[in-house]
Design goal:
Length: 42
């Protein structure tokens, strides 16, 4: 069985403002890897 070769840290941004087209501002928590590069998102 292979052991993981590295561990990514997680950066958390809380209450990020996301403006909508209708003028409403939604707030979101953003969790992303603490590493350079491109990552998939949901």
């Amino acid at each position: 069985m292979n052991e993981p070769t590295g561990v990514l840290g997680i950066v958390t941004e809380r209450d990020v403002a996301v403006p909508m087209r209708d003028g409403v501002t939604l707030r979101a928590n953003v969790f992303r890897p603490d590493a350079p590069g491109r990552f998939p998102a949901l």
